[in-house]
C-alpha cells in the first residue's frame, strides 16, 4: 500500500511538471486536479516568473531626471547620476537585472507607470495617500521635508509667515506644491507659480520672478551650497517629515516584494549607508 502511494505521487509529479510546462505558455490552461500535497511539489518556484517586466531582464525605471542630488545628468560625462540612480542600479543588480532609466516629465510620471512604460518610478517621490491609491509604494527609503529656498540677497523671508503676499515657485504636482496650497488654506496669502520642472522654479528665484520656492530639503541644500550668492535655505517647523518610496504598478506585487526584500538587505549589509554617505556625507 505504501509503495502504491509513492508510485502514485511520482506519477502525479511527472504529470504535474508536464502540465506546469504548458501552463507557462498559456496561463488560462486549467491546473490539473491534484491533491494539495502533490500540487505543492509540482509548482516549481523557479519556473514561475515572480514578477512582470516591461523588458525581459531589465528593470526599467521612470524618473524626472532634473533633481540633483537625487537624479540628474552629469555635465561632464552626460550620464545619469545621483542617489536614486545609484540606489536603483544596486537594486537591479541584486535582482539579477540590467537597469534602464527613462527620463520622464513629472507631470504624467504616474500615468506612465500605469501605462507600463516602465516597471517602477524612482524619482524622490514622496509617499502620499493620494498617490498610494494609484500605485504601490515600497517601504520608505529616504526621509525628507519641505523647506523654503529664497534669494540670498533677500533677508525678508525667515519662515512660512513671511511668504504672505509673495510669489512662491513650485514644481507642479509635487509635495512642495501641496504644501504651498496648504499654507494658503491656513491663511498665508501667497501666490503660487507652478513650473513643470524644479530647475525652472529655482531659476525663477534667480531671475527675481519669484521670492522663494518650496522644495525638498536636500535639493535646496545643494542649490544653496553650490550657489550661496544666489540661494538661501529657510526651515520652518510647519513642514512635516515625508518619505520617499519606489512606486510599482498595482498589478505587480511580486516586484514590490522583491524590491522591499532587496532594500532591506541593502540596509542591513551597509550598502544603503554607503550610497547615502556618498551623496549626503557632509
Ligand atoms: N518629493 C517631492 C514629491 O514627491 C518632489 C519630487 C520631485 N522629483 C523629481 N525628480 N522632480 O512630490
Keyword list:
binds arginine; single chain; 14 strands; alpha/beta; five-stranded mixed β-sheet; 10 helices; D-Maltodextrin-Binding Protein, domain 2; 282 residues; globular
Which helices and strands appear, and what pairs or packs with what?
Blueprint: H1 2-25, H2 36-41, E1 58-63, E2 72-73, E3 80-81, H3 83-94, E4 98-103, H4 109-114, E5 120-121, H5 129-132, E6 136-137, E7 142-144, E8 146-151, E9 167-171, H6 175-185, E10 191-195, H7 198-207, E11 212-216, H8 217-226, E12 231-234, E13 242-244, E14 247-248, H9 253-268, H10 271-280
Parallel strand pairs: 1-4, 1-5, 9-10, 9-11
Antiparallel strand pairs: 2-3, 5-14, 6-14, 7-13, 8-11, 8-12
The structure holds arginine.
Arginine binds next to loops.
Structure description:
- The protein has 282 residues and is α/β, with parallel strands linked by helices.
- The protein folds into two domains: 123 residues, D-Maltodextrin-Binding Protein, domain 2; 95 residues, D-Maltodextrin-Binding Protein, domain 2.
- The protein has ten helices and 14 strands.
- Strands 4-1-5-14-6 form a five-stranded mixed sheet. A five-stranded mixed sheet has the order 10-9-11-8-12, sandwiched between helices. A two-stranded antiparallel ribbon has the order 2-3.
- The radius of gyration is 24 Å and the shape is globular.
- The chain binds arginine.
- The site of arginine (ARG) has 13 residues, from loops.
Amino acid at each position: 500500500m505504501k509503495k502504491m502511494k509513492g508510485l502514485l505521487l511520482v506519477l502525479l509529479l511527472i504529470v504535474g511538471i508536464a502540465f506546469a510546462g504548458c501552463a507557462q505558455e498559456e496561463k488560462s490552461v486549467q491546473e490539473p486536479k491534484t491533491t494539495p500535497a502533490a500540487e505543492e511539489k509540482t509548482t516549481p518556484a523557479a519556473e514561475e516568473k515572480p514578477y512582470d517586466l516591461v523588458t525581459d531582464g531589465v528593470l526599467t525605471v521612470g524618473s524626472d531626471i532634473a533633481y540633483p542630488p537625487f537624479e540628474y545628468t552629469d555635465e561632464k560625462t552626460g550620464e545619469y547620476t545621483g542617489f536614486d540612480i545609484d540606489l536603483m542600479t544596486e537594486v537591479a543588480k541584486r535582482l539579477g537585472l540590467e537597469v534602464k532609466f527613462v527620463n520622464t516629465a513629472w507631470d504624467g510620471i504616474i500615468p506612465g507607470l500605469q501605462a507600463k512604460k516602465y516597471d517602477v518610478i524612482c524619482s524622490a517621490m514622496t509617499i502620499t495617500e493620494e498617490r498610494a491609491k494609484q500605485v504601490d509604494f515600497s517601504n520608505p527609503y529616504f526621509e525628507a521635508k519641505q523647506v523654503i529656498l529664497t534669494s540670498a540677497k533677500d533677508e525678508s523671508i525667515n519662515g512660512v509667515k513671511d511668504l504672505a503676499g509673495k510669489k512662491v515657485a513650485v514644481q507642479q504636482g509635487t509635495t512642495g506644491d501641496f504644501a504651498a496650497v496648504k499654507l494658503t488654506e491656513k491663511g498665508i496669502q501667497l501666490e503660487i507659480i507652478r513650473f513643470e520642472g524644479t530647475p525652472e522654479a529655482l531659476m525663477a528665484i534667480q531671475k527675481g520672478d519669484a521670492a522663494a520656492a518650496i522644495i525638498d530639503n536636500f535639493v535646496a541644500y545643494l542649490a544653496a551650497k553650490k550657489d550661496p550668492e544666489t540661494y538661501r535655505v529657510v526651515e520652518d517647523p510647519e513642514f512635516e517629515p515625508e518619505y520617499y518610496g519606489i512606486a510599482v504598478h498595482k498589478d505587480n506585487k511580486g516586484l514590490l516584494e522583491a524590491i522591499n526584500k532587496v532594500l532591506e538587505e541593502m540596509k542591513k549589509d551597509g550598502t544603503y549607508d554607503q550610497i547615502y554617505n556618498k551623496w549626503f556625507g557632509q
